[in-house]
Amino acid sequence: MIDEIIRVTEPDLPSLEELHPFLEKIWESRTLTNGGAFHEEFEERLQEFLEVKNVSLTSNGTLALAIVLKALRLEGEVITTPYSFVATSNALLWNGLTPVFVDINARTLNIDPEKIEEKITSRTSAILALHCYGNPANYSAIEKIAQKYKLRVIYDAAHTFGVKLKDSNIWSAGDASIVSFHATKSFNTFEGGAVICSSPNLKRSVDYLKNFGFKDEVTVVGPGINSKMNEFCAAIGILQLREFERLKDKRRAIDGFYRDRIPSEIACPFQYVPELSEPNYSYYPIFFENEALRDKVYVGMRASNILVRRYFFPLISSFPMYAAYPSSADENLLVAKKAASTVLCLPIFSQMSFESAEKVVRELKRCAEASRPTKTSF
Ligand code: T4K
Does any ligand 1 atom lie closer than 6 A to the CB of residue 11? Predict the structure, then answer.
């Protein structure tokens, strides 16, 4: 047992001194939500930061996704990945859409474009792909398929804030992307999210739908919901943006520390794809030989106060709402099943010390050694 609790992640926070003047402005203006000054400023600053034109802030990533699916007026079936947080598919169900699960690529852990076409039917209206752990999906292959079958493409980019590609902007892929600013993400506004839209018309629809469908005081243009970002979260966002790159560097250092010290005989590290010029280092997944070994290490490390997590186990397709779908059958999702049953996410966050990272490596080695049938020393 180690003396401190090391969580899988911890949120970045601005200092209270920096926050105070923002709170004073909110108190003075008494505008707490519904598109206040900080909301407008944060939206603009995000557009600059992400180098995009059409950002719509939301109260969280899940509703960002549910709303953009609604704004695109999708129907029928949507091709998606089972290896994600359950919010990805739940947003489809909330829109009366049927997820059709396609297996993932073993190297990227993203939806495998080579397996998409066989799942397209006359009812398919879109592809909802994930950039898993911030590793970009194969957007050019997905784009080709979408054009051939006239499908919409939406990216769940909940993990992707701050990720940069060598040759293009990750936010320009598809019709829209959504991002999460949840406390556990590389960039947080406590709770929050955004839709990044390819067109101003789509942004307008999203803006209406997140505000009950109101176009003006008396006109409701669609079945909207309430998913506005409030002034407190927007103020936090403005402050967090100032520090993002510096904090990313700190996570990069922890990522490098693990890469140098965890032997591949214990577990394989997650590999970034070559298209990536800059990850955001918000997750550190490793993959064991088999589920039994992974679970022994999981239990052992948690017993030692290192609160590792198994993102994304179990697969979305195994939850009761989805398990009966033909596309949820095990033989359809062999790669995803293997990833879900062998993954373990190690702690990584900007405030993490090298001393804590050292403890993680030491406990990982100890638990892995204790769990192997034939003892090898790491
Ligand atoms: N799409 C994808 C692919 C996603 O991963 C997510 C969210 C979404 C969509 C939806 O976006 P949001 O609607 O959430 O904006 C967490 C998060 O709640 C969830 O946002 C995230 N994905 C998912 C991958 O992870 P849990 O159940 O693991 O959270 P929890 O509370 O166990 O927190 C994990 C660790 O973080 C804890 O050990 C402690 C630490 N923590 C957590 C919170 C909330 C803190 O230190 N401070 C905190 O305030 O789901």
Answer: yes
